[in-house]
Amino acid sequence: MPKKHRRKRHIRKSLLVVLVLVIACGVLAFQVPKITSEAKLKDLGYSKEAIKYIQKADYASDIIQNQYYSKYMEQCILDGSLQEEYLPLYAAIKTDRTLTDTDFLLYNRLMDKGYEVDQLQNLFNNLTFIELTPLLVFDYQWGENPYIQDCKNNRDHNSESSFSLSDSYYQLYKLQKEIPSPHDTSVLVNSTYGLTSDFVPDNIVDISTQYAVSGVQLVQECADAFIAFAQASQEAGHYFFATVGYREYAIQESAYNSFLARMSQSEADKNSIRPGHSEHQTGLAVNVAATYETSVAFSETETYKWMVENCTSYGFIQRYANEKSSITGVKDELEHFRYVGKELAKKITESHLTYDEYYMLYLADWDEKSCIPSKKILKNIPDYVQ
Questions:
Q1: Where are the alpha helices (DSSP H) in the chain?
Q2: Using an 8 Å Cβ cutoff, are 112 and 368 in contact?
Q3: How far apart are the C-alpha atoms of 289 and 334, rounded to whole Å?
Q4: 377 and which of 28, 278, 284, 373 could share a cystine (Cβ 3.0–4.6 Å)?
Q5: What span, in angstroms and rounded, lies between the C-alpha atoms of 45 and 55?
Q6: d(C-alpha 226, C-alpha 246), whole Å
Q7: For residue 12, what pLDDT band results from cuts at 50, 70 and 90?
Q8: Residue-wise burial string across 61-74, b where 16 or more C-beta atoms lie within 10 A, e elsewhere
Q9: Cα 360 to Cα 198: distance, rounded to the nearest angstrom
């Protein structure tokens, strides 16, 4: 029987056209957004090479939506050092300044204090590191521009070792928080962080009258360090003695109330420290005087100069430098030294920060855990205590 021939089925041209159109639409649907994105990134100022990296890293939409661009940001994109979570910060850097992991920590600390992203961009765009760190101590500034302008107005004489402002940004005792670990040698005590009325430090001991006036007491670890400090000073030909050490809450309360009975609270706060907010209650603070150089102010003595230069070797810091009283809120307490331990004293001194700033940047607890930087960042900051 002859073979039957099957009729070949022909695909209608109309179907082919539809298929081609579908494929073309699919390609366009993929390519058009990419092309549009490239155009927008180019308009912002990015080079072709940077655009390729941005699209590959998949944060083009974030950059375009927020109009993020700076030459520094593009540089970091190209060298692969950019940290995506800090895009707003990179975009704010419009000078020769570069960002470090410590800057990222500072950014997060200020965010934890309440500053919004747009405020932080404004602050980092206009201020240096040493102008930003006092904000960790100061009250939250709802409007940051007056502070920025004040910093700029005082730049001629401000430096790592000296910092002053024309206005005040820290209302004493405005916020009062209880100290979480009062027995730590790193404890921060100031007008914000205070000790309870029943707090008494452990291991309080008397200091020999060879090195102090009668009745001075310090925590044992601090006392041992102070005696070593005094002995080394004597060997160098300088002599000092402790005049004030541990002071219990009730004594500080009595001293403060004596001022309060004669003047307003704001005036009393200028003349005395409120009970619970004195470092002397920790047993880790000591006031000193030069033994023989009594004809001049303590700050003008050779003994004082030697103490400032050598105190970190024995675990002490000069707590209240006059040159930074606008940050600490304390002036003319140059005889006040604070024990924190050798390692921490060295770090604080090398940082050129006040202890208030250093503590709030590297040691303080976080209010919002979501503000804590990634472990990748924190591991590169040796001063940060995790």
A1: 13-44, 48-57, 60-66, 71-79, 87-92, 101-113, 117-126, 129-132, 145-153, 220-235, 249-260, 265-271, 302-310, 325-328, 342-351, 355-358, 375-378
A2: yes
A3: 10
A4: 373
A5: 15
A6: 13
A7: low
A8: eebbeeebbbebbb
A9: 25
The sheet that has 336-339: what strands, in order across it?
Answer: 240-244, 285-290, 336-339, 316-318
Q: What is the mean pLDDT of residues 63-82?
A: 91
Q: What is the mean pLDDT of residues 73-97?
A: 90
The pair of structure tokens assigned to 328 is: 């600490």
> In a 3-state reduction of DSSP, which class is residue 56?
helix
**Nearest Cα to Cα of residue 191 among 115, 114, 256:** 256
Residue 238 exposure: Cα atoms within 13 Å on the Cβ side: 20
Q: Tell the residue number behind the tokens 């001293």, with chain if given.
A: 255
- On the question of pLDDT at 362 being above 80, the answer is yes
How many residues in total does the chain contain?
386
Q: Which of 221, 333, 335, 343 is catalytic?
A: 333
Query: Computed from CA positions of residues 161, 383, 123, 173, in that sequence, does the dihedral angle turn out positive or negative?
Result: negative
User: Is-catalytic flag, 333?
Assistant: yes
How many beta carbons lie within 10 A of that of residue 297, not counting itself?
12
pLDDT at 24: 46
To the nearest whole number, what is the mean pLDDT of the chain? 91
Query: Which residues neighbour 119 within 8 Å (Cβ) at sequence distance 6 or greater?
Result: 144
